[in-house]
Amino acid sequence: MSHLKYLSAYSEQTQQQVAQLIAKNQLGEVLLKRYSKPHDLRTDRALYQYVQDLKSEFLRNAEPINKVEYDSKIHVINHALGLHTAISRVQGGKLKAKHEIRVATMFKEVPLEFLRMIAVHELAHIKEKQHDKAFYKLCTYMEPNYHQYEFDLRLYLTQLDTEGRKLWG
Question: Where in this chain does the entry annotate a coiled-coil region (predicted)?
């Protein structure tokens, strides 16, 4: 099942179920039933405000985020859907870090749950740098359905890979 590269970490049984949906051309249908419409956060400004609202709700004491934007240079091919970067600069005698979050442009036309999942993921990197137990605990604190949304996003990426057509937008 090499065509299920986004689901390679999942069990053989799960991969077989997805392969059956693909064979019956039902994977997109299943996703559309679960998530009927895309979000309306199309601009960088709206995305910035959305991420700031999440940060204010869950990570009040974390360092500030200086920039949040959609980035067309981020590709799924590079195994990235979003990036969190901390750029350090010397200002006076102090070292200042500026945090930036970049989200793949494909997230302009997906359900809000997928955008929330990637925003939560990138916000969690402010506190936890590695993808470890503490990182995923923080993700599920900010979004209790984090793992379900991640799995469904992987299903959508698989659907894009096999059928090549977008479901939303």
Answer: none
DSSP, residue by residue, 57-122? HH-TTSPPEEEEEEETT--GGGT-SEEEEEEEEEETTEEEEEEEEEEEGGGGGS-HHHHHHHHHHH
Would you kindly state where each structural domain of the chain is located, as residue ranges?
38-154
Q: What is the pLDDT of residues 69-90, one digit of tens each?
A: 999 888 654 556 777 776 777 7
Kindly give the interhelix angle for 146-163 and 27-34, rounded to the nearest 10 degrees.
Answer: 140
Q: What CA–CA distance (Å, rounded) separates 29 from 39?
A: 18
With CA atoms as reference, report the closest residue to 55 among 144, 150, 138.
138
CA 103 to mean position of chain CA atoms: 8
Pick the CATH number of 38-154 from 2.60.40, 3.10.450, 3.30.2010, 3.30.200: 3.30.2010
96, 89 Cβ separation under 8 angstroms: yes
